[in-house]
Design goal:
The protein contains 14 helices and 16 strands. The chain is α/β, with parallel strands linked by helices and about 425 residues long. The protein has two domains: about 280 residues, Aldolase class I (TIM Barrel); about 90 residues, Sandwich (Immunoglobulin-like). Helix 3 runs parallel beside helix 5. It is found in: Lysosome.
């Protein structure tokens, strides 16, 4: 039921609001103190879309080469990506030459990166963007290129000398969990010692999970974001499994996220081949709710206007980048409909309703406003805007009212509730 007029705030409601303000203002656990990633990192990462394609003869336009990254940099600047916040252009595995140089430094493959990484970094910086690179804590990268084990200091220094701004540090080919954990810490300290601001993107918990429960308080002290779960693929099955893992483990991972350190559910695959429109909406909405790094892996040279508009949706990005920096969580699941919510600054809330029923057509779902935001989202009323699948002002709603929405199969309705 919509509310027509405004209601005056009685004293006890003001007290509740004050309580909410206090509750949501508690800082989270201590973060890596490098001043970076105060909001989730935004950018582009090559892996899901371009993988380890090193055959520039056969596929000159999609092999991992300086040309690919220079083209993406150009588009990130010219096509509005940078303007909405996508800033880090990141290289993943397979950029390296098979051997270190005579001084023990990593080097880029000379055929595919003929002018070296420093040249690429300069070019990326000239576009007002930042450059990310990839290495591995163990003896080899996952694709078999030289690992950083035993070389943490020299590799950190090399990346800093080249002007790199982010390091994705993978965890393949490490002979023990002890070495892995030590290695992640040592690389963090080594990066810090270079004096250059380098975002540190870890996969530490993902590689610890098979052995024991990761210590997230510690991980947060060393990493700016960390992967918890398997690699994302260009499929609904994959996106769905990431959401299921996240909600199943939310008690363990949600509170640890905050400015400076974030859970990383992996890349956005929007704009590729495997997700329907509704599934792309779901990924965008839920990555915003989860305060996830927004690292697209797609081909910016060939992307539909619809996918581009979704990825560049300023209202949804604002939820992802909300300065309060609290990760959202799944509130409930009933009859294959999940309700997720995330507290935002200024006492606002984001609410996402996902229809996981893969049969039939759009389904109606009614939520009671009083059940949202731990009862505090809409006291005594709030202004609700639907952001996805398309933007629509829904108007004022009272605490005691209900809201009826229609959600497509595998789709999501994303709302923003603003305090009045
Ligand atoms: C692992 C990571 C991926 C990607 C590949 C590269 O699987 O989890 O994100 O970096 O390695 O080989």
């Amino acid at each position: 039921m919509k509310l027509e007029g405004r209601v005056r705030l009685p004293g006890f409601l003001l007290a509740l609001r004050f309580l909410a303000l206090v509750l949501w203002s508690f800082p989270g656990a201590r973060a890596l103190d490098n001043g970076l990633a105060m909001t989730p990192t935004m950018g582009w990462l090559h892996w899901e879309r371009f993988m380890c394609n090193v055959d520039c003869q056969e596929e000159p336009d999609s092999c991992i080469s300086e040309k690919l990254f220079m083209q993406m940099a150009e588009l990130m600047e010219s096509d509005g990506w940078k303007d909405v916040g996508y800033e880090y252009l990141c290289i993943d595995d397979c950029w390296m030459a098979p051997k270190r140089d005579s001084e023990g430094r990593l080097q880029a493959d000379p055929k595919r990166f003929p002018r070296g990484i420093r040249h690429l970094a300069d070019y990326v910086h000239s576009k007002g963007l930042k450059l990310g690179i990839y290495a591995d804590v163990g003896n080899k990268t996952c694709a078999g290129f030289p690992g950083s084990f035993g070389h943490y200091d020299i590799d950190a220094k090399t990346f800093a000398d080249w002007g790199v701004d982010l390091l994705k540090f993978d965890g393949c080919y490490c002979d023990s969990v002890e070495h892995l954990e030590k290695g992640y810490k040592r690389m963090s300290l080594a990066l810090n010692r270079t004096g250059r601001s380098i975002v540190y993107s870890c996969e530490w918990p993902l590689y610890v999970w098979p052995f024991r429960k990761p210590n997230y308080t510690e991980i947060r002290q060393y990493c700016n974001h960390w992967r918890n779960f398997e690699d994302v693929y260009d499929s609904w099955q994959s996106v769905k499994s990431i959401l299921a893992w996240t909600s199943f483990n939310q008690k363990r991972i949600v509170d640890v996220a905050g400015p400076g350190g974030w859970n990383d559910p992996d890349m956005l695959v929007i704009g590729n081949f495997g997700l329907s429109w509704d599934q792309q909406v779901t990924q965008m909405a839920l990555w915003a709710i989860m305060a996830a790094p927004l690292l697209m892996s797609n081909d910016l040279r060939h992307i539909s206007p619809q996918a581009k508009a979704l990825l560049q949706d300023k209202d949804v990005i604002a939820i992802n980048q909300d300065p309060l920096g609290k990760q959202g969580y799944r509130l409930r699941k009933e009859d294959n409909i999940e309700v997720w919510e995330r507290p935002l600054s200024d006492l606002a809330w984001a609410v996402a309703m996902v229809n996981l029923q893969e049969m039939g057509g759009p389904r109606f779902h009614t939520i009671s406003i009083a059940s949202l935001g731990q009862g505090l989202a809409c006291i005594p009323d709030c202004m609700i805007t639907q952001l996805l699948p398309e933007k629509r002002k829904l108007g004022f709603y009272q605490w005691t009212s209900d809201l009826k929405t229609k959600i497509n199969p595998t789709g999501t309705v994303l709302l923003r509730l603003a305090a009045t």
